[in-house]
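Table 4 source record.
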Amino acid sequence: MSLEKFTEKHIDYTNKLSSILKNEKNVDMNILENSKGVFNDIDELKMFLIESEIEQVEEIANLLLQIHNNTDTFLKNLTFSKSLTENEAIQIITNEIIWQLNLKLDRSSLMKASDCQRAYDIAMYRCERNFAIGVAGLAVSAFFTFGLGSVVGATVIAGIAANCGAEALSDYNDCREAL
């Protein structure tokens, strides 16, 4: 699998995961914070999600598994993966995520948008980028530690991404009011 194809899938999965996690309202953060963080199989992950009072267990577990499998497949098939460190793998993937999301950013519409809208669109792009990079880092770490990754980490990253979006909207509204 090419880096480009891996990253396309990764961005698609993380966008779906972010959308689902934004709608989770009753998550028991105490359980998440006290978790061991890495799971050996999908059933263990699902049980943890249920205990954490996450409603969309199947969807989240399946997306996390897809992210895990996508990352494993990509890293196992790299011709130089035997000599690649975890940090190097994260950096390679981070650069490609930034590259692909930059291509998606519609610069022509940004140039036509009001200053407030432009600032909001750029801020939301950064939120999406940072979530995708954060989840990629978790998936790469899981590859190197032979686990299913950290739901705690993904949830924390999703919380940060949701907060990022709320701050971008607040800044947009403040900007509009100042006009």
